[in-house]
Structure formats: structure tokens, C-alpha cells
Amino acid sequence: MNTRTRLRLMASSLALGSALAATAASADTTLTFVWHAGTCADALTSIAKDYPDKSVKIVPALVPYGPQWHDKIASEFAIQGDAFDFAMWDSQSTAEFAQHAVKINDIFDKSSYLKADLFPAASLSRYGEYPDGSGEFYGLPANQDAYGLTYRKDLFEDPKEQEAFKAKYGKDLKVPQTYQDAKEIAEFFTRPDQGLYGWAQMGGRDYDFATTASNSFLWSFGGELYNPKTFEVKGYLDSPASVDGVQAYVDMFKYGPPGSTNWGFDEVNTAIQQGQVAMAMQWFYFNGSNIDPKVSKFADKIGFGVLPGAIGRDGKFRRQFSVGGQGMGINKYSKKLPELAKFMEWYFQPEQQKRYAAVCQTGLKAVLDSPDWQNLNSYNHQFSQALEYLNDYWHLPEYPVLLDELQQEVSAAAAGTKTVQQALSDAAEKNERTLERAGYEIKRSEKTPEVPDQEISPVGVDAVVPVE
Amino acid sequence: MTAISHERRQAELRKRSSGRLMIFGFLSPTLAILLFMVAYPIFSLVYYSFFNFSALRQGAMKPMGLKNYKFLLSDPELWERFVFTGKFVFICVALQMLIGIFVGYQLHKNFRGRDLVFTLLMMPMMLSPIVVGFLWRYMLNSEWGIVNFLLHSVGLPKVDWLGQTNAALWAAAAADTWMWTPFIVLLATAAFRGIPETIHEAAEVDGASPAYKFFRITLPMSAPVLFIALILRLIDSFKQYDLFVALTGGGPGSSTETVSFSVAKTAFSYFYTGEASALAVILLVIIIGLSMILVRHLQKMSERY
Question: Are residues B149 and B278 in the same domain?
Fold first, then answer.
């Protein structure tokens, strides 16, 4: 090898080395997140494109809503993998995923901006706290949601309809405050010959479709899923009040389009957007599309309200319905935690969250408290009120098993293959078996209450409290 | 003499052992892959089936002996899954074989546009089962689905296809049949076209009717291929999972959950890893047993024809 060749080789090595170094310096850090595909995941992706640190890319790994979404996150945690860095998971999944997630308290301690008081205390607790009341958080309220009521304003405000309703039921036609009222209005508007039905709700077997809806009835009638102190399910889930609630839910299918017992949110949305139903029980998440004239024929005729409550068998009024939305949790096996913490500090700034709130529901207090947010669209005002009445499933690591057992039974009751009483008794039996197998000690009470809400976090009041 | 024969024997032994080495050398990569990809997972599956543990919820693995098996086999719901799976397999395979053989018989004849028709018929088989599930879910929607629209347009009542147990079974069978009948058509056509034309010509000379030719010549001579198609469809239908995820979600209630659906749910939703392993072992034993019976039958059939 002569000198010239040697020099050439050295120069080439230097050039290659510099090129590699430069590439390494400008290498992109990708932060991958898992969520179900939809408007809100698209919003996050779009906002993240404006993240000032251009070396960091936010990459979505989206799956359809349903078990696939839960299973994707769970499978990665099971192998302690880092295929994603953060994920949005359901509030009730926090208990199951906590041991694989970064404790957000550590981020609060280290960050100068990201602190617990940026979020409403109830929201932070709802989407991230485990165990309940412990002050330990594993998620941030990235996407809040609640069940709500949508209704056809054109029908409710039509003087002829108002007159006919008053003649038949002896009361004014107005947005229902109780399920008892909702049933009458649904019956009034059920006119199959005109292609119009009174009520739409989810009843499908998939994931949590049927039970998010049926639980809303169950809680409002004073029922409970279990006793969190004694872990009794029998006597609570199949209590007379719980049966009243789920029976009211099943009865509402009489006023829905035929076959709606296996509907998911897609079918409910279609019914709303086609004007096929006078009222529907639907997540606020979807209201953006329901008022979008590009997809909704009745965009300008849809009104929004808070879901009704019910007067239970003890004469008390309760209004409680299922919480929706997701918390943002961090994969503790991720190797990019410093970059992720920085991104979260930026993402939870009011500027970014205002953009997010234009299409979805933020959990940032500064945005929620602002009058601009209330007037941003025609349903934020109702959404802020709905947040007062939320309730949730079991916050236990066995949640997916308990959920599937309840789904199976409620779906059977909706399809009419079991009575509500039988379905809830079978679900209680299965749920207790699951808890016992997981090692919970069930302390059996001598007597279980007829209306479990009277014992567990009571919310019943003596008179109907209307929400405008 | 003795020294020469000894040397010869030595040379022969060297040759034989080097031949064995060579065979082993060629086989070892494949054997290693097989051991790693098949034997190890099966061994792990059987091993885990004797423990109570969850891959997701970290904790000690508790030895359970045969308790997982006892629990599963005494669970009446699992037997319901087997009964449903059996019904589904029977309906699907029967429909697919009947329609597939009929269509295959029509397609083995030469006619103009045959290749185009054949290609179009194969299309459903190229779709993913989950896509087929969603496609049929929309088509069978009780309010907006094309199926009820057509029924309604001829004056028939709308059917709640996916909301009622029996209707949901037939809906799932229809979707599976739509997707997999082309597979039977493909194999049946190939089998029918493989029969020498001279045999048919000889039968014609003897005055055999088309039905006689079909039942006494075409069908028996294609039997081994058709039997392979039957075995493959039996095993595949028995494993059906993704179609149900998209089409019914296992409902209403749990009336359309197949055994494979239960395995997947127990393993990846519940994360009862030990119990899911035991269930998978039970399923494996059934499928292997079924396959062995059928393969033995196939061998006898091949010897006959």
C-alpha cells in the first residue's frame, strides 16, 4: 500500500466517520403511542407535528376500538417490550396496567411545569389513580369523555308534536330528566311506518358496548356492581335495584330500530346522523361528527343534553352514568423516557390543549375553565355538566375478566335469551368466582341491601334535580 | 486375505459414517428450526398448562397439577363452546363441500370466459377473515344491510341476523362459506381435470349417463384430493376465530364463541396464561386426533384408487 493509497483510505474513513456522526446527531427519536383509531388519535398526531424539537417524531400505532386495543397494550406489557412508549388506555385498565406503567408522581416531582394541579382533581383520579384514593397516578387525563344524550331538536321543538305529546301524556315534551320520562318520549316517537324510532343505545357483545350503557341505568336506579369493601357481588349486582336498572335498559330496546340489541357506537351514530331516532345515548366523543354536515344529514337539528337519571324503588333520585375516554400512560420499559417527559410538558400546555379541545375533550384545567371552551361548540357546556355524574367499573386488575363476564350476561338479557334477573345472578356468580380465583376474600354479609347505593357512596336525593 | 478384507471393511465403514454425517449435516438446520419453532413451543405450552400464572400480572408461578384441566373440563360453558364449534364446523364444511364440488364440476369443462369466472370466484378467499367479518357485519345489519334490504324488497320480513343465536350461527356459516367455498372449487376443479379424458370417453361409448359418470367415475377418482380438501377445511373451521371477532364479537351472550375464540380470550384478554395453555393443549389433542383418523382414512382411500 503506497502513501497515496493510505491517505485516500484515511480520508475516506474520516468522511464516513463524519457522515455517521452527523447521521447519529440528527437521528430521529420516535415516540410511538397506541390508541384506538379515530378523531382524537388523529388530533394528537396532527398537534405533535408542530412539536418544536424536530428530532422527535410522534408515531401512532392505531388499532380498532375494542379488545384488540386492550390486547395490544397488554401483550406488549406481558413481554416487557418497548414497541410503544406511551398509550391511551381506559380508566378502568389503570389497575391492570399499573405495574407496567411509569408512576406519574415521579414526573410531577421532576418537572417544573407538569404538576397534578394542572388537571381537575376528579379527572386525574378518574383516569390515573390506582389504588383508589392512594394519591398514586399512572395516567394523565388526556381524553375525557362521558355518556350524553342527543336528541332531534326539530321534533322536540315542533308545536304539533308538543301538543300531541301533552294530549297523550298530560305533560310537556322536553328533554327528559328521568328514564321514566325518556321511556314515554321514546314510546311517543316510535313510528316504524315513518322510519322513526324513539331511542338508540348500544347493546353489542363487543368489548364494553352493552355494559357501559346498562351500567348507566343500573347506577341511576340505585344498583351497584359489587361491594368494594367486602368484595360481595351476589346481592349487589343482582339486587332488586340493579335488576330494575338493567330491566329499564333492556325495555328501551322496544323503542329502538329492530336489531339494535347488537349495535355498537357506529350504528348508534348512523341512526343519529340519518335522523332515524328521536333520542340516543351516545358518547360526547362522537358529537363532533354528529354536527358535521358532511357526514350528518341532521347536523343542524341535533341537540345535546345530559343523560337522564331515575327515581329508584326507594323514591330517591340518582343520575349516574359511565365515564368514557382515556388516560395517557407511559410504558415503563420505554428507553425514551426523558424525551417523552419533555414532549408531555409541551403537549399539556394550554396552547396545544386548546387545539385538541376543538375536536376532543381535554383534561387540562386551564382550558376547561376558560369561557372560550364552553362556547367552542354546541355540546361543551353539557359535557362540563356531565362530568359531575360519572361513575366507573371495578378498579381492579381483574377488570377484563369481570367485564367480559358481565358483557356476556347483559348481552344475553338484551337478546332475550335470559331474563334480567337470571343474567345478573349468573354474572354475579361468575364475578365472585373470578375474584375468589384471584385471591380476594369475600366477606359475606348477613343481609344485602335492596338498593345498594344506600350503602356504597350514596348519591340518592329526595327530588329530581334537573340539569338544563 | 484377512488384512485386505479388514481394510475393505474399514473403508466401507468410513464411507458409510461419512454418508451419515453428511445426512445429519444436511438435516440439522431443518431439525434445529423444527425443534425451536415447533417442539419448544409445544413443550412450553404443556409445561405452562400445569401452572397458575399470568404473563401480564407478574407473580410467582403456582404449580397446579391437573387442576387447570379439571377446571376447564368441568366448566359447562366450555362444553357449550365445543357444541357450537361442532355445529359451525358441520354446517360450514357440508355447505362448502357441496357447493364447491358442484361449482368445481361446472368449471372443469372448457367454455369461453372460464378463466375469468374462475379468477373472480377465487377473490373472497384472498381476503382476510377479519375483513370478511366486518363486510358481512355491514351487509347483515338489520336496518341498513343489503341482505335485509333485498328481503324487504320482495316482501319478506327483516331478520335480526346478528342479534339472535340461531340466526347468528347461520350468518357466520354463510360468511365462512362465501369465503372458503372457492378453496374447495380450486381443489375440486384440479382433481376433476386430472382424470384422463379417455376414461370418460370409454364410459360414454358404454352408454353411461352423465350422472353415472359423475358418481361412479369422477367422484371416486377425485376422492383423495377432495378428502384432503375436507381435512383442511375441517381443521380450519375448527380454529375459526377472527371471523367471529368482527362479525358477532361472540354474542349475543356467548352463543357464537368458538373454542378458539375462548382460547384467544383467555390468553390475551384475561391473561390467564396457565389456563389458556391447558385449553390450547386440549384443542391440540382434539385436532391431532381428528387429523390422524382422517389421514389414516385418506391413506386407505389412496390405496383403493
Answer: yes
Least Cα separation, residue B76 to chain A (angstroms): 12
How many domains does chain B contain in total?
2
Q: Which of A262, A417, A431 to mutate to test the interface with B (most CBs of B within 10 A)?
A: A262
Residue A25: per-residue pLDDT: 46
| Residue B224, domain extent | 71-304
Predicted local distance difference test score (pLDDT) of residue B302: 77
Segments in chain B below pLDDT 70: 1-3, 305
Min distance A461 CA to chain B CA atoms (Å): 35
CA distances (Å), origin B19, targets B8, B14, B16, B23, B30: 16, 8, 5, 6, 18
Question: Is B305 near chain A, with CB under 8 Å?
Answer: no
Is B157 near chain A, with CB under 8 Å? no
Residue B58 lies in a domain: no
Q: Please provide the average confidence, as pLDDT, over all residues in chain A.
A: 93
Give tens-digit pLDDT for B167-187. Answer: 999 999 999 999 999 999 999
Q: What are phi and psi of A24, to 5 degrees?
A: -65, -40
Residue B57: its pLDDT value, please? Answer: 85
Identify from A68, A75, A205, A407 which residue to disrupt to test chain B contact, counting B C-beta atoms within 10 A and taking the largest count: A205
The DSSP element (H or E) to which A155 belongs, if any, is helix A153-156
Claim to verify: residue B80 and residue B223 sit in the same structural domain = yes
Whether residues B173 and B31 fall in one domain:
no
Which of A205, A258, A267 is nearest residue B251 as measured by Cβ atoms?
A205
Same domain assignment for residues B136 and B188: yes
Taking an 8 Å cut-off on Cβ atoms, the answer to whether B269 and A71 are in contact is yes
CATH number of the domain that residue B279 is part of: 1.10.3720.10
- Residue B233 sits in the same domain as residue B84: yes
pLDDT in tens, A295-341: 999 999 999 999 999 999 999 999 999 999 999 999 999 999 999 99
End-to-end CA separation in angstroms for chain B: 55
User: Which among A67, A209, A258 has the least Cβ separation from residue B158?
Assistant: A258
Same domain, B171 and B43: no
**Residue B141 DSSP symbol:** -
Interchain pair B251, A206: CB under 8 A: yes
Domains in chain A, please, with CATH?
A: 29-145+323-391 (3.40.190.10), 148-322+396-454 (3.40.190.10)
d(C-alpha A360, C-alpha A283), whole Å = 11
Q: Is B245 in contact with A78 (Cβ distance < 8 A)?
A: no
Q: Which DSSP string corresponds to A209-241?
A: HHHHHHHHHHHHTT--S--TTT---TTTTTSHH
Alpha carbons A105 and B19: distance in angstroms, whole number: 67
What does R_g of chain B's alpha carbons equal in angstroms? 26
The phi, psi pair for A358, rounded to 5°, reads -65, -25
Asked whether residue B282 is assigned to any structural domain, the reply reads yes
Claim to verify: residue B83 and residue B213 sit in the same structural domain: yes
Contacting residues of B for A75, CB less than 8 Å apart? 268
Least confident of A15-19, A32-36, A133-137: A15-19
* Nearest alpha carbon to residue A304 among A362, A196, A376, A378: A378
- In this prediction, what percent of chain A has a pLDDT beyond 90? 90
ipTM for this model: 0.86
Q: Are residues B189 and B83 in the same domain?
A: yes
Chain B's closest residue to A262, CA to CA, is B163
Q: What is the pTM of this model?
A: 0.89
Closest B-chain CA to A257:
B143
Q: Which one of B160, B271, B272 has the shortest CB-CB distance to A258?
A: B160
Instruction: Give a yes or no: residue B231 inside a domain.
Output: yes
Residue B160 is assigned to a structural domain of this protein: yes
Q: Work out the burial of residue B303: count CB atoms within 10 Å of its CB; fewer than 13 is exposed, 13-18 middle, 19 or more buried.
A: exposed
**Does the pLDDT at position A38 exceed 50?**
yes
